[in-house]
Write a structure and sequence with these properties.
alpha/beta; six-stranded parallel sheet; globular; binds 2'-O-acetyl adenosine-5-diphosphoribose
Amino acid sequence: MTSAGGPPPSTDEIRAARQLLDRAERVLVLTGAGMSAESGVPTFRGSDGLWKNHRPEELATPQAFARDPRLVWEWYGWRRDLVRECSPNAGHRALARWAASRDGVSIVTQNVDGLHEAAAAEVAAEAGAVGPDPLRLHGSIFRARCTECAEEDTHDCPVDTRERGTLPHCGHCGGLLRPAVVWFGEGLDPATLDTAFRTAGEAGVCLVAGTSAVVQPVASIPLATLRSGGQIVEVNPARTPLTHMASHVLNGPSGILLPDLLAVPG
Ligand code: OAD
């Protein structure tokens, strides 16, 4: 989505949204690829979401991996290299500081780049304040899972994609490893999803930042907050299917708006 969603928020609009967040005993923060855009990680549906003329939707599928695991690993290798060069932006840092500074915040992310965790580690190192671990709905590009025995572990080393035999294999059973991320057409981990929906149902506010809110079931998580009487605050430079349901829509980049909204340095 690249279309402008409206004028930037006024100071009063930001203050009103902040008051809502401050009053809420529990807040669920749901983030998507736009959260990392200012760190230099391409979003999925933006005009820069292409790689060697392949769309992510063509590569991030079990069928693509079955057909050509080298190509898929090459793409993930490229994304890992790209993300390794990226640092958390002011939005990640503000969110990490805020979440560590009060009770009742849960962070649920669709991002596989680890930048929320990196921001939390920075904040913990600098201020000794430890926030909640983000719930990763779509996995991590720095983990891999065996296609045979399903054993999963951290996998952060370079991948040799010269031939199928040089691709990473399982240390336990020798099966081919795949990136431990959720692909198109695959289900999310039911327990993780359950936790996300339950937490959303308990939250007085769902703060949604940087997601196009078109990929289900995640796009429905904020609706669980609405159904139980809570409200949505959205931060995004473009309109989304959630915009008309939000009590406060802050139109703009999360790296600029979140430090203001959360009243913490980015
Ligand atoms: P998208 O690429 O679909 O959407 C990115 C959103 O971020 C859009 O709504 C943009 O307007 C917004 N955006 C762009 N720059 C921003 C900025 N600086 N600050 C705030 N928002 C900004 O990414 P997702 O919604 O995360 O799933 O995509 C959802 C899922 O689709 C991904 O997790 C991935 C993908 O297919 C899987 O791989 C399973």
